[in-house]
């Protein structure tokens, strides 16, 4: 379940709504073919333009086994493999998992909910959840599952739509436009962005959650946050003055967390 949070740019329109959605998993499968086309259009998606390289810089060097949680059509899995990671993908959408397998049959991809991973404890030393946790129905359980399948001191790297981004909007297109939050930043809610760009359309359905929801989930799963990054849009991605708004307010949030070693009082449990 890959990414939402795309900023508007030339030839782009975004319509936001707040639907009563009971299953994000179902919503993403309904639009999976749209996303495959969207993600694979050269230079089209924010993955390459805005923050792929910054996210990869957050990752440790390749280890024994890396899990890509919410791998979508497999673009990050393929990049990880090219960097030397022994990567396995998992996604809740059968359509996207099939697309990922077709793109690189050498990468194993499983269809499963992030909140119920089909792997044994301590199966991986690294896990990534790139632009997927905001699209997971039970995010705390998904984080707990990520921690479970990590070996002791294993590392989880996460990218999500920045909660500031999902909570508010710029008032206009000017570089200095005020950014306002009309509702509550602290309350979670489902939002849907219908995005059209250069003849392609995609519907992103996600949950806004405050930053504390993610850090609480990590802490509750026995993980310690090592690094938080809030990137401005890089200068190389600026295509018009309106894009400079996103050099003042972060589009995305990256963080790295590590599974805390078990204390003697815990009887050696990881």
Structure description:
A hairpin with an 8-residue loop joins strand 7 (169-170) and strand 8 (179-180). Strands 4-3-2-5-6-12-11 form a 7-stranded mixed sheet, with helices on both faces. Strands 1-9-10 form a 3-stranded antiparallel sheet. It has a two-stranded antiparallel ribbon with strand order 7-8. With 270 residues, it is α/β, with parallel strands linked by helices. The mean pLDDT is 92. It contains 8 helices and 12 strands. The protein is 27% helix and 28% strand. It has one domain (12-169, 183-261): Rossmann fold.
SSE inventory with pairings:
Layout: E1 12-17, H1 24-30, H2 32-40, H3 46-58, E2 66-69, H4 75-82, E3 87-91, H5 94-103, E4 109-111, E5 124-130, H6 139-149, E6 150-161, H7 163-167, E7 169-170, E8 179-180, E9 189-197, E10 200-208, H8 211-220, E11 223-230, E12 252-259
Parallel strand pairs: 2-3, 2-5, 3-4, 5-6
Antiparallel strand pairs: 1-9, 6-12, 7-8, 9-10, 11-12
Helix pairs in contact: 6-8
Percent range for β-strand residues: 25-35%
Number of strands: 12
Instruction: List the quaternary state of the chains.
Output: single chain
CATH architecture: 3-Layer(aba) Sandwich
Which fold name fills CATH's third level, the topology?
Answer: Rossmann fold
Mean pLDDT: 92
Reading off the top of the CATH hierarchy, the class is best stated as Alpha Beta
Q: Estimate the global geometry from the Cα principal axes.
A: globular
Structural class: alpha/beta
Biggest sheet, open or closed, and with what strands and sense? 7 strands, mixed
| Largest sheet strand order | 4-3-2-5-6-12-11
CATH superfamily grouping = Vaccinia Virus protein VP39
Number of H- or I-type helical stretches: 8
Q: What count of structural domains?
A: 1
Write the H/E string, N to C. Answer: EHHHEHEHEEHEHEEEEHEE
| Percentage of residues assigned to helices | 25-40%
């Amino acid at each position: 379940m890959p990414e939402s949070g795309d900023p508007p740019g030339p030839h782009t329109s975004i319509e936001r709504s707040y639907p009563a959605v009971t299953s994000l998993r179902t919503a993403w499968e309904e639009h999976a073919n749209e996303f495959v086309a969207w993600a694979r259009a050269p230079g089209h998606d924010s993955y390459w333009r805005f923050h792929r390289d910054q996210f990869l810089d957050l990752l440790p060097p390749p280890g024994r086994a890396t899990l890509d949680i919410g791998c979508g059509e497999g673009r990050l899995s393929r990049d990880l493999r090219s960097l030397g990671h022994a990567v396995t993908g998992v996604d809740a959408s059968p359509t996207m998992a099939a697309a990922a397998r077709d793109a690189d049959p050498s990468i194993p991809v499983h269809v499963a909910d992030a909140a119920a991973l089909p792997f044994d404890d301590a199966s991986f030393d690294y896990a990534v959840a790139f632009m997927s946790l905001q699209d997971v129905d039970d995010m705390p359980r998904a984080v707990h599952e990520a921690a479970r399948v990590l070996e002791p001191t294993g590392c989880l790297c996460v990218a999500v739509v920045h909660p500031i981004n999902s909570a508010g909007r710029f008032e206009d297109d000017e570089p200095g436009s005020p950014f306002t939050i009309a509702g509550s930043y602290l309350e979670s809610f489902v939002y849907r962005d219908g995005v059209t760009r250069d003849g392609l359309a995609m519907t992103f359905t996600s949950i806004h959650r405050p930053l504390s929801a993610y850090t609480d989930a990590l802490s509750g799963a026995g993980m310690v946050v090592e690094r938080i990054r809030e990137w401005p849009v890089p200068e190389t991605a600026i295509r018009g003055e309106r894009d400079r708004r996103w050099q003042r307010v972060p589009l995305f949030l990256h963080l790295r967390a590590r599974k805390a070693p078990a204390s003697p009082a815990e009887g050696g449990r990881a």
